[in-house]
Fold each of these.
Amino acid sequence: MCAVIGDPIEHTLSPTMHNAAFEHLKLDFVFVAFRVAPDELEKAVRGACALGIRGLNVTMPHKNAVTEFLDEADPAVKFLGAANTILNQGGRLRGFNTDGVGALKALRCNGVNLTGKKVLLLGAGGAAKAIAFSLAKEVEELCILNRDAVKARELANVLEPCGKRICGNELSPRQIQKELSDSDLLINATSVGMTPNVSESWVKSDWLKPELFVMDIVYNPVETKLIQDAKAAGAKVINGVEMLLYQGAASFEIWTGCKAPVDVMRNALLSRLSSAGAYV
Ligand code: ATR
């Protein structure tokens, strides 16, 4: 058994994606969701371990607090102070954060080569941090813009030892337009554009150009305003389902040791999102 723990948890897509993959590969696994209140987190994790649950996905609000209960943490967990995946290896709890590697894989599998490129990243929250941590080692230049500029600058500072050109600044129309003019890839890692605020985007459509790759981590709606505008401008787009998919695929591989059937998982996600009305 594998499970996702969070609070709230009703809208999680993890069981859909993982059960489709388990069935497709005929693995003797099942994936369930548990709502765990913050003050029950330790008991839930220790209980999952005692029950021999093979793996956990950890979502809001537990990603940070759960790191206290790990026996081992991968470098991303150590840097971020947050884990989204736990492997129970014979009673030893190993923590991983697959958000960053998932984003990187989503980019690569959709034709993005990051070497020598400049990336403009919007956001400096949990997801943005994980993406920045993975990107910093790969790209030539990374510019992080956040509504709270202090968070953007702090993130840029801690990533500086990577030796690449990394800067942090305020999220403003002027900064976006300036930084976008020589960027190769734009990533929205804020929650802007998410249902119900589907008409929101910080990026004006006439700043977008065909040479640009645009990735949004918002997956509900599947086509955000930013993705629609980028498409209309002729840019190449990667929607939020891809990041969700590849972070899940990375967790799946940690738990099972099997290569994740990403097409099966994507179809399961898209049909579930479609029946939930996530297409606008
Ligand atoms: P997650 O774990 O999904 O990244 P989070 O850590 O709460 O969630 O981060 C949300 C991100 O979206 C932050 O970068 C936040 O900006 P602030 O740090 O300034 O709060 C950003 N965000 C949320 N609403 C926003 C808005 N209306 N305009 C711009 N940025 C917004």
Note: Residues 123-128, 146-148, 151, 171, 190-192 surround 2'-monophosphoadenosine-5'-diphosphate (CB under 6 Å).
Amino acid sequence: MSEIEDMNQTQKILILDFGSQVTQLIARRVREAGVYCEIHPFNNFDEAQIRAFDPKGVVLSGGPASVTGSDTPRAPEVVFALGVPVLGICYGQQTMVAQMGGQVETHDHQEFGRADVEVTEPCGLFEGVWQRGDSARVWMSHGDRVTKLPEGFRIVGRSDGAPFAAIANDEKRMYGVQFHPEVVHTPDGARLLSNFVHVVCGCSGDWTMAAFKQDAIQRIREQVGPDGRVICGLSGGVDSSVAAVLIHEAIGERLTCILVDHGLMRQGEAEQVVTLFRDHYNIPLVHRDASDLFLGRLDGVDDPEKKRKIIGGLFIDVFEEEAKKVGGADFLAQGTLYPDVIESVSFAGGPSVTIKSHHNVGGLPDRMNMKLVEPLRELFKDEVRVLGRELGLPQALIGRHPFPGPGLAIRIPGPVTREACDILRKADAIYLEEIRNAGLYDAIWQAFAVLLPVRTVGVMGDARTYDHVLALRAVTSTDGMTADSYPFPHDFLSRCATRIINQVRGVNRVVYDVTSKPPGTIEWE
Ligand code: XMP
């Protein structure tokens, strides 16, 4: 069901997902236009749910299938019967055309990447953006194309590979584009989507973070009730911190935060969290140093997945113990985000390959008999940051790079020791300090050091050294799904290497990782 059933007065756009890699971007663009929206799989949101959702408009996403194949995805018919505007993007356009009585064919002239659309007619989507006669840069990715329009539709834009690149039926308020307006490679795309939700669907754009915050506080109060108690695991990351502060605004002292220090955190991290929450916000916080327990159990373990399982399991044990000590709780707060909630559309049918099991505390509620409070489950990461600002959290915390749950354990290939963690912490702190000093921190998605189980020979002050290699990694990314290595100037890297080798005993060589994702991953394990 809808994530915000009780926000009925909110104007909502429904995005039906046909499995495109970029469906989430449609949602982001719609929300940037100040309109709430949700993504649901085309085949798992039935007529009753669609009617109950009561959308002001519907967007049909792109997808990998071909409308010309047998038994390929179709939009639920109710979408075209609701009387609200519909925008079909790529596959969404093709299925709309096919379902409304037009024709789609597979064509030799496929278009992938940049293309130019010639605007042939004005239409609501283009208002204030494109004029008749304009040539506009867009991003295409399609093999099939529309070859015959259904009745009532007209062409409003065409390209070399797609004579029906943009189509409109003004009476029914149905629109279709063969290109992808949601990606940044279609420079005017965000304005076209904004036109769809404002000009065509008539949404007012009043979905602001201030409104969301008030609403979220109200919903937390209703869910937790007048006496309910909530516990929240704090990691020092943005999501759990924002969730904690929001819940604290809603229910005050009935929230207790628990920080389990597994000995795998970065330099000064646990102390910063304690200072911020206990001293600054006055939020009850239990700080448990469980480093002996975690490092003891990790002794001799070198397999990355085993490390993750041990850390995940121990985290639950310690959390449970600490929760009992504070008298238990009825609710567990989690900083779950919208991308974790969106159900993905799978055409292959089989399970996808697990590259890494990114641990979360999903096992907790069952074991602890608690209900979940997940106040961020409708938000994207960048929206959580905006909410954090709205709540007055310091920029240093809001802008923090993501840090994995298993912490330094997956940045020390091979067995993890306390000594290795200490070396890595020092080197990592120097690297991050240099990045901050160079004013580059916010331009980077994630930057960190990796301590390699490789020793090399060096010479320092006429003496031979035989110490570890440290790899530096920095990537740019928008969602962690794909990433590029950050192109530091050479002198920056040399400066980091010199400082680290001079100041961190145990490291005598520094290398920089220039691998993108794919084929690499961001973390080394
Ligand atoms: P990869 O290494 O898969 O990382 O490219 C993508 C993002 O996920 C983070 N990551 C994790 N986060 N538990 C977490 O909570 C994990 O086990 C884990 N492994 C990777 C990684 O830091 C990056 O932001």
Note: The two ends are 36 Å apart (CA to CA).
